[in-house]
Amino acid sequence: MVGRATKLHATTTPMNPNSVVGRNPRTTDEIRRYNLAAVEVAKAHGVEIDDLFSFMEYRDESWYSDYCHYTAAGFIALGEEVAAFIRTKMQK
Q: Taking the C-alpha atoms of 35, 63, 75 and 6 in order, what is their torsion angle to the nearest 10 degrees?
């Protein structure tokens, strides 16, 4: 905690599982490795993790509007997840 603040980190979400490549050539495996490194560093500094990667990992391509961006339903689901995560941290 910094004062009364809690440090939070959200992992990066996976790419569209249909493997369409757009302007961003990142792959889900690359993002997974990035997240593992980021989580390791964050935890070492007492940062709490909202694992959005795991939250979205098994969603099919219907959740995506392109190679990496979500549909309105996807963004709503992510927003609800983030809000719920933050609420649980505020209750501590």
A: -30
